[in-house]
Design brief:
CATH topology of the largest domain: Beta-galactosidase, Chain A, domain 5
Distance between the termini: 44 Å
Subcellular location: Lysosome membrane
Radius of gyration: 27 Å
Keywords: Glycoprotein, Lysosome, Membrane, Signal, Transmembrane, Transmembrane helix
Shape: globular
Number of domains: 2
Family: Belongs to the GLMP family.
Number of helices: 5
Function: Required to protect lysosomal transporter MFSD1 from lysosomal proteolysis and for MFSD1 lysosomal localization.
Largest sheet: 11 strands, antiparallel
Helix content: 10-25%
Pfam families: NCU-G1
């Protein structure tokens, strides 16, 4: 047993050495930005400053909730907003990151619609549902969004955009709301709450929350639509990364991600990454896990009305230089529970620049596996050595008769 204890002690020391390296850190600033004559802040600027670069996340609810992701090779780059132009009919150029020549990459993601459909057969087949099963979609550009400055927490580096349907004659939003919670990170770690997303200093997090929104049917399921922009020398693509390790999200083995697919692979790009699961209660308990799935990207360049924030940064001719594609994420699984059970849904994703985080076995799991797989071999070796020693001792004690 002393050998087993010694082995476990050595494995613990190794794991501490692995975890002892100093992580890369950024200096993070979180600011609610409001105009000179505005009583409500609807812009949030997250500035993650590195040694020689800056990642800017500019969130806004000028139209559909939208985030601009801008990577600058200057640690001194700043956000500038021309409020007069931003609120004008032609907002092009109203939002700038300066110096402009420091910008190496930029993209945008807009959260545009929430679809609701009647899943009477409990198949969770969003793409195969008949048109008659769908209720009128909630257009998030038509929502009224609260003042983000009132939710700003500079200590926790978080803020929340909370919205209600501006036109709600049936009072489905009488006690409910839709929210987008934003969190920023100074260094890499893992989220405390399920699905325990892994993140780095190059990431921020967004949580989509539907709380107490009355469904329009007993068997309603919901779908979130996102629209993304990518320069025409490349395009976005979706990937699924599978792992046998479900240590942090039991029974969930799929990590989904929306990444940039460009010709020049030497350039790092933006990404959105999430586990294939949402939750039906605020504590994100395993018992209320709601599987989710993404659907094929489709081009909406000719049909999607651009939000003001995207036009303000990319310009009026954004469609000429950027691919505009939509992605749907549907919530629910065949024979599963419906939204009506709790009237609550929360889904999390990390948004960032560079290489998406990749899950791996924790040092604890590696130590356990090493003991479990190594002990039989160790016992065989120890047993063989012991037998040899005993055998040699027995022969050495024999006294021959002269």
């Amino acid at each position: 047993m002393w050998f087993v204890r010694r082995l476990l002690f050595l494995l613990l020391q190794v794991s501490l050495c692995w975890g002892g390296s100093e992580p890369y850190r950024r200096e993070v600033h979180l600011d609610a930005v409001s105009g000179p004559n505005s009583s409500v802040s609807n812009l949030l600027h997250v500035r993650a400053v590195g040694y020689s670069d800056t990642i800017h996340y500019v969130w806004g609810t000028l139209g559909a909730p939208t985030v601009l992701l801008v990577y600058s090779n200057s640690s001194k780059s700043t956000l500038n907003v021309n409020w007069t132009k931003l609120f004008s009919p032609f907002p092009s150029g109203a939002v700038r990151i300066e110096p402009a020549e420091s910008i190496l990459y930029s993209t945008a993601i807009a959260f545009t619609k929430i679809f609701e459909y009647d899943d009477s057969n409990n198949t969770a087949n969003f793409s195969g549902a008949p048109e008659s099963a769908f209720y009128p979609a909630y257009n998030l550009a038509d929502f009224v969004w609260g003042d983000v400055s009132k939710t700003l927490n500079t200590t926790a580096l978080s803020a929340e955009f909370q919205g209600v349907n501006a036109s709600d004659p049936a009072k489905h939003f009488q006690n409910g709301s839709v929210s987008f919670r934003v969190s920023a990170y100074k260094e890499g770690s893992r989220d405390l709450l399920p699905p325990h997303l892994l993140y780095t200093a190059n990431c921020s997090k967004v949580e989509f929350v539907m709380a107490e929104v009355a469904p329009r049917g007993k068997k309603s399921r919901f779908v979130l639509e996102m629209v993304t922009l990518e320069k025409k020398n490349g395009q976005k693509r979706t990937d699924s990364v599978w792992s046998i390790d479900d240590e942090y999200t039991p029974t969930i083995f799929e990590m989904a991600q929306l990444i940039s697919d460009v010709q020049n692979h030497s350039r790092a790009q933006g990404f959105l990454q999430w586990k294939a699961v949402a939750y039906g209660d605020p504590s994100s308990s395993r018992a209320e896990a709601v599987p989710c799935r993404y659907h094929q990207l489709h081009n909406v360049s000719e049909t999607w009305p651009l939000p003001d924030l995207a036009v303000a940064f990319f310009g009026e001719d954004v469609r000429e230089h950027y691919n505009v594609e939509a992605l749907n994420v549907s919530f629910g699984v065949a024979d599963g529970e419906f939204y009506e059970k709790h009237n609550y849904l929360i889904w999390s994703a990390v948004l960032g620049f560079g290489t998406p985080p990749r899950d791996s076995f924790s040092t604890l799991v590696i130590a356990i596996m090493a003991v479990a797989l190594g002990m039989p071999a160790v016992l065989l070796i120890v047993g063989f050595i012991t037998m040899c020693i005993l055998k040699k001792k027995r022969y050495s004690e024999y006294e021959p008769i002269n």
